[in-house]
Design brief:
- The chain has about 80 residues and is an all-alpha fold.
- It has one domain (about 10-75).
- It has helices spanning about 10-40, 45-55, 60-75.
């Protein structure tokens, strides 16, 4: 597909083909694959899982963890 080809945006197949062509042109095949992986819908209930995972973690512990990561990054840079 090129800039001279009209795309009927009411036709999902044409839109998908034009989009994939643009992605391959700009990102290459591997980059397109990585981009497409980012669009997966995911599954489960993230909010409920997060609440369960963090139920015994205080905000103070989270802040300390962030500071620890930041200090590790400072040492490595």
């Amino acid at each position: 597909m090129n800039n001279n080809t009209a795309v009927d945006f009411r036709n999902p197949t044409m839109v998908r083909n034009a989009g994939m062509s643009a992605l391959r042109k700009e990102l290459g095949i591997v980059g397109t694959a990585y981009f497409m992986r980012q669009l997966s819908a995911g599954k489960g209930d993230y909010t409920a899982e997060r609440v369960e995972l963090l139920k015994d973690v205080s905000s103070k512990e989270i802040a300390e963890g962030i500071r620890g990561i930041q200090s590790m990054m400072d040492v490595n840079s």
